[in-house]
């Protein structure tokens, strides 16, 4: 089934410059900005500029250039924010939520990069 992209989602509006964001990094195909409700001292969202709904949509339909640009930009965010263990940082977690079971709120593909504190185990059990 093909994905339908909703142009009214909040990240589409950020990309169109309709609402502000706190940019961490911008490249040809990618934008990284601070999450408005940070869940850790470092909480950055990395999004492609293209119209992709979630990770599997992006991985399937994005060009090799877009995928390379996005992946390099996400790695650069780890370096810029100082969380990358390869450069002396204490570590981080990447998360990408998709669909109902992933509890995805914004239907534009995004990678959360979280760090700056011990993040606990990977998943909490539902209440
Ligand atoms: P998800 O549940 O994976 O779709 O996460 C969506 C994330 O977008 C949440 O962590 C929100 O805090 C964040 N968010 C929503 N609106 C904005 C905004 N205008 N600027 C930055 N982050 C936002």
Could you describe the 3D structure shown?
The protein has 127 residues and is α+β, with helices and mostly antiparallel strands. The protein has one domain: HIT-like (HIT family, subunit A, 2-Layer Sandwich), CATH 3.30.428. It has three helices and five strands; from the N terminus they run αβββααββ. It has helices spanning 10-15, 55-61, 64-81, and strands at residues 23-26, 30-34, 42-48, 92-95, 111-115. It has a five-stranded antiparallel beta sheet with strand order 1-2-3-5-4, covered by helices on one side. It is globular and about 40 Å long. It binds adenosine monophosphate.
Number of extended strands: 5
- The helix-strand sequence is HEEEHHEE
The level 1 CATH classification is: Alpha Beta
Summed up, the helix count is 3
- Average predicted local confidence, pLDDT: 96
What is the secondary structure topology, with strand pairs?
Layout: H1 10-15, E1 23-26, E2 30-34, E3 42-48, H2 55-61, H3 64-81, E4 92-95, E5 111-115
Antiparallel strand pairs: 1-2, 2-3, 3-5, 4-5
Adenosine monophosphate is lined by residues 10, 19, 21, 35-37, 45, 97, 103-106.
